[in-house]
Specification:
By secondary structure, the chain is of the alpha+beta class. It has five helices and five strands, in the order H-H-E-E-H-E-E-H-H-E. Helix 2 runs antiparallel to helix 3 and helix 4 packs across helix 5.
């Protein structure tokens, strides 16, 4: 292999290391969310990230993190994130002290949308004021 080709290969490896370091928080989030079929590579100075998120909410979390690091329209990363289940927005496991209003505020930015969550979970919820820790709630697409 010529010195030039070795140099080019080294530059590509360094570029990948730099790009991965810049977007490490995105990659860590992808791992925490258990993104499936994940793949990360560098092409022509652009980090290419592919994978499948469980829900649209998780895809949004990844895009929010990308924009937080690279700006609203980053040119140094190309993410192709698919969604495994787009029939719902997310599945939420209730934590102690949560209410449907708090959960609605978290996902929709509006506590009054708790009614939509209650309706989507009417098979397990009989009263919107009574939810239990560890219940898994469907967060519907709105």
């Amino acid at each position: 292999m010529s010195t030039f080709l070795i140099f080019i290969k080294l530059i590509k490896q360094i570029t990948l290391i730099i790009m991965r370091a810049k977007y490490q928080k995105v990659l860590d989030l992808g791992e925490a969310l258990n993104i499936q079929n994940g793949d990360v590579k560098e092409e022509n100075g652009v980090l290419k990230v592919n994978g499948t998120a469980n829900t649209p909410y998780e895809k949004n979390l990844l895009w929010d993190k990308i924009k937080e690091i690279g700006g609203d329209n980053p040119s140094d990363i190309n993410a192709n994130i698919e969604v495994a289940d787009s029939s719902i927005f997310h599945r939420h496991v209730v934590k102690s002290g949560e209410t449907l209003g708090k959960i609605a505020k978290h996902y929709y930015g509006n506590a009054a949308k708790y009614q939509e969550i209650f309706k989507a979970n009417s098979d397990i919820l009989k009263n919107p004021d009574v939810i239990q820790p560890d219940q898994e709630l469907i967060i519907p697409n709105l």
